[in-house]
Every structure is written in C-alpha cells, then in structure tokens.
C-alpha cells in the first residue's frame, strides 16, 4: 500500500548532510526518489510541483531507520518488571509478564477477530457495493485483512510520528507471509528496500533457546541465577539462516536476529549472564562449519542486543568487523530489564557498525528518535565521547549499511525520498542540538516515498491537496495538532480504530487484571506523562550506576 505522491515535491530549506551538518539546499523529488539536490534555494520550473519552503528554524533530516522494533506492541501499556533479570528467557516465563503482556496480547488477537465486525461492517458494505456483491459473499479472510489494517496503521503511526520512515518487519517477526505496510516502509517487503523480489530480510527472535525439556525459572527470586549450565537447543531459524549462507545468501539478502540478550557485565561488574555468553559461542561454532569462509561477510547479518558477547576479547571484535556483522543497541530496554547494556564506546572505537533500536512499548522507547535521545544522556552521564553525528548515523546510515546498503538514510540523488522536518527551538540552534533536545511535538511533517504522510494540520491545509485525518484530541495536546494522510483506498477511520483498541484494552484491564488504570500508551512521547516519568526514573538509575562505577 506504500504509494508516492502523484506530483513532484520540492523542498527548500536547511538540510542535514551525512556528517550532521546543515546547509540550505533545494531537494527535488519525483516518483518516490530524490532526483536532485542543489545548493541554496533554487527556483524549480515545475508548475505541477508541491513546494515546501521551510522557515529558518526548520530543518530536514533523512527519515530514521529502526531495525529493532516489535511494532505489534507499540500501543501496549508500560510493563513494570518485578526484577532485573539475567536474560530474556527468564522474564518471558515470568507469571506477571505472562498476565500483563503476553495474555493481554493473546486476548487482543482473539478479540479483534470476535468483536470487530460492527466496526468493519460499514467498510465491508462499501466494498460489496463497489464490487456489486452481496455482503454475505465477502469472506471472513477479507474481514481479517480489515482488522489487520486497523491494527497495522495504529502501530505504524507511533513510529512515523517520531520521524521513522523504515522499520523492521511489522506486526510479527518470523512470519512467512508478506505483511503489508500502510504508512511506512518495512524490512518485510523487498520492493520497498530496492532488493530482488526473490530475496527477503529475515527477522528472527531467537537463534537458540534453553532446552529441550527445560522450564526456565521465571520467578524474580531466580533472576540472579547462574545460567551457564542451562541446556541449549538450536531454533529452526538458525538452520534456515545457515542454509541461506551455505547457498550463497540467495534466499536472504539480510538477517536481523536477537542474540545474547541479557546482562553484559559492563555496568553490573562481574555479573555477565552465562547463557547469553554461550549463545554467541554457539553461533560462531556453527558458522565455522560453513566451507566458504567468505559467505558470512556477504550475509548482511545484524545481531540485536548482543549484550552477552565478550567485547574485551579482540577476537570477538575482529570477528564482527571482518564479517560485516552489525549490532543493534537498545539501551532503554536493556537497562529496564537487566540493569546493564553494551560497552558502546568499545564497539564504535573498533569500527563495528552500530545501530539504535527502540525495542517495544512495554519496556522500550516510544520510537527510535527517543532511543537516540536517551543514548545521548547515557553517553554524557558515563563520560563516553560519542558525538551527536555518531548517534544520528546509528538511526540513518548505519542501519542502511546493515541492510546491505539500501538507498535510505541519506539525502542524496537516487535515494528514497524519506525525510522528516523538525522545528528547532530557534534559527540559531544547530540541527544536531535540536535532534537531541526537541520532542516529537516539534515534528512538522514526515515524508515517506515522496509523500507527506504525517504532520501539522496547517501544512496540509495550506500546501497539500490530499485527504487527511486528525489524531483524536484524546491523545493529548501535541497529538491534537497533528494529522495523518492515509491512502483513501484503505477506507480507514483512525478515530474509530483507536476507540476499538481502547475498548478491548480497558475490558481486559478491568475484568482480568482488575487494574483499570492499566491502559494503552499514547501515540506521542510529548503527550505521554507515565512514559516520560519512566524515562526520567531510568536516567536517575543510570546516574546512580555511574557514581558507583
């Protein structure tokens, strides 16, 4: 459903380059691609072009890329973890998590199917009229596509509101079907990445797991257990990846895999998680059995979290760098769940390609831009000399490189026309200072494939001849000033969809959890006070850790 604007787009104003510097440029876009970038404000003799002439306090950034996001959880409530865990398998088996999040998700999945007919009946009636069919002839799979559409648009909206234009496969990782996107690009659709339709980007939750016949203790009392001797079993996804590498990477153009998510021993000195450490050792052992030693370097492998790797070992760093293996850093989620995270400065200094990822709403950031701002605080508090330009690269150029050099993450001719326009606090403020200090209320617009899909209502009224829908006023003051342009062919009503989600969530929270206040997070960080309080509390925790270290 990703579509480009039917008319050329001309943007004139301050533009950020690959070093994070800003200068006045004119960008010409057509058919979803950047076709020209010129110095200064250059009049374009295209009477059919849509012109965005930016103010001095506005700046164009390349659209952000998020390679670690479980978008189906984007709208979920915050989860209050009862412990700091050793690794991800512990909290996944914790009863509180299962009750508050996992069963909540299962309830939503089931209830969308059972209770959404009243919502989608007008849409189905419209489709029946268009196709001259009786309503009864529209099958349940058609209804299910409408339900998935409702969920998909909402989860993508939170990302695009934060300047994200490309994210990891939406809805479910490891799903075989080609899941559509509605507002944004995603790694699950080759055509949106400019790669061959016969290939795909594989997104993997686990390469290995504890077992077989091993029940991971999920009690907070076991959070500090030594996991070194847990039995380990290979997940079918690892075989899938290895077979692709052995066959010259013909099946998978790139792979993004969760690995070694747990305590790193960096901030929790001497408390590295044993099972996490062994996960990477097992991966290296399996990769060593591949006859062609050059194949891995062409696999475009990205490891998500990867906290358990021994970065004090030069051999580990050499292995990552020489094989072009990228790492996705998610400090918010790491710190909330494990009280620990990566030795990020070591990776950067050693030339490892590092990206930032937001993870998920229950214990992560609102969007990857917020993850970047927290990373700025983290580096400053621990006196790590990491520049704002490096952080910007972690959400633009670096993830594009991790995906094998897709044409995203930079504002250059031939690249995807994906941008977001940010209002700085003043014309004198630098673009990078604005990036780390402004919030998502300051996004003037987000552009995907040359089409303005989200932004301030005034822009749509004054400059854009397209339909749009307002974000419901109940989302907060910042959201009330924003609108989204959803392809009219989708027959999508944002307000009704959010009401449906809210009703289901309130019902589960009230009847099952008996916690009526346990409700959906808001779409914008600027409007979400509980989320802001959590991030501020996490900053205090990091400051305390820094003093102890």
UniProtKB/TrEMBL annotation:
Q: InterPro entries attached here?
A: Amidohydro-rel, Metal-dep_hydrolase_composite, Metal_Hydrolase, MTA/SAH_deaminase
| Positions of the Amidohydrolase-related domain | 286-453
Q: Name one Pfam family in it.
A: Amidohydro_1
List UniProt keywords, sorted A-Z. Hydrolase
- The name of this protein is Amidohydrolase family protein
| The organism of origin for this protein | Spirosoma liriopis
